[in-house]
Design a protein that fits this description.
Structural class of chain A: mainly alpha
Largest sheet of chain A: none
Number of domains of chain A: 1
Helix content of chain B: 55-70%
Strand order of the largest sheet of chain B: 1-3-2
CATH class of chain B: Mainly Alpha
Number of strands of chain A: 0
Number of strands of chain B: 3
CATH topology of chain B: Arc Repressor Mutant, subunit A
Mean pLDDT of chain B: 88
Strand content of chain B: 15-25%
Structural class of chain B: alpha+beta
Mean pLDDT of chain A: 90
Largest interface: A-B, 16 and 18 residues
Low-confidence stretches of chain B: none
Distance between the termini of chain A: 43 Å
Oligomer: heterodimer
Helix content of chain A: over 70%
Chain lengths: 212, 97
């Protein structure tokens, strides 16, 4: 075989390998997840954490030992804040992912995104139910770290079906959650770190890597 | 060198057939429309390549009816899986030389 022919053959098979990889990824992973979704979720979590913080610690001296005020009234406000953060994150996430899906030519509601959502929701719904039970039993302090842990487990479970960075994001959420279980008083700060700062950082990194 | 060339599978020389196999290797099963959307090919083109792969017994085709509409699911057989793995290994060997 002469050298030029050999080189062209090799190029053809290199292209084949590239095609195989692209199709495997496109058919098994939801690649349209936008980094901007993470940024929006992070910002709304930080706003939510700030509102929650001012609700439970309102009217208290910053220097003294602070007591979290968890009256029924405050719990109702906290619950509304949580729902608000959740809705903003979901709507923002869908919006930016829809924008990106136009570029990647991947339908936003396809078998990949369904699989992603189902696998995210199994640990997440489990965590949600467990947390509601714990609230009912008055174990409020453990809620923030538990949401981090179950969310992290959900991300790890879902990471097989989307961009691979989601896996390490999940690991870090779990780590923050475990720290939060030990240091209950820092629950809200760790929650803001996990749902707020980590989302923003990962969102920007992923945006730069896949979309910029 | 001669052995490697023998391991390269003629059935996978075509881009569409390579695409069908790649997608089915990482999915339990896919239907006709998902494959069509994924590979960006026409009905007729996809059907003819599916037929070719089926003839080699690399595909398993399951027809069922959903709401009275035919719904065909394609998956890869063990023979197809082996052949495709062998083909990729041959490409890797070839590129190493």
């Amino acid at each position: 075989m002469n050298l030029k022919v050999l080189f062209m053959e090799k190029q053809k098979y290199l292209d084949d390998l590239q095609d195989i990889k692209t199709i495997m990824d496109r058919s098994s992973r939801f690649i349209s997840l936008s980094g901007m979704s993470g940024v929006i979720a992070g910002i709304s979590a930080l706003v939510g954490a700030y509102l929650a913080y001012s609700t439970v610690y309102s009217g208290q001296d910053y220097l003294n030992y602070r007591h979290a005020n968890l009256s029924f009234y405050n719990l109702t406000i906290l619950f509304s804040i949580a729902v608000g953060v959740l809705i903003t994150s979901i709507v923002g996430g869908i919006y930016f992912t829809h924008q990106k899906s136009k570029k990647t030519n991947q339908n936003i509601w396809n078998s990949q995104s369904k699989r992603l959502i189902i696998n995210l929701l199994i640990p997440l719904a489990t965590g949600g139910i467990v947390c509601l039970i714990l609230i009912g039993k008055g174990l409020i302090g453990i809620i923030a770290p538990f949401t981090l842990i179950f969310y992290g487990l959900g991300l790890i479970n879902a990471s097989k079906y989307t961009l691979s960075e989601i896996r390490s994001l999940g690991m870090m959420q779990i780590l923050l959650g475990i720290v939060g279980c030990q240091f209950i008083g820092y629950g809200l700060i760790l929650w803001a770190l996990g749902f707020g700062v980590l989302h923003i950082v990962y969102g920007i990194v992923m945006y730069k890597k896949y979309e910029a | 060198m001669k052995n490697i060339l023998e391991d390269l599978n003629k059935a996978f020389e075509n881009k569409v057939r390579l695409g069908i196999m790649s997608a089915l290797m990482v999915n339990d099963a896919l239907n006709f429309n998902s494959l069509k959307e994924l590979l960006g090919v026409t009905d007729g083109n996809l059907a003819s390549h599916i037929k070719a792969l089926d003839k080699q017994q690399y595909l398993s085709i399951k027809k069922e009816f959903l709401n009275n509409k035919p719904h065909t699911q394609y998956s890869v057989t063990q023979a197809g899986r082996d052949a495709f793995t062998k083909h990729i290994k041959a490409i890797e060997q070839l590129l190493k030389n």
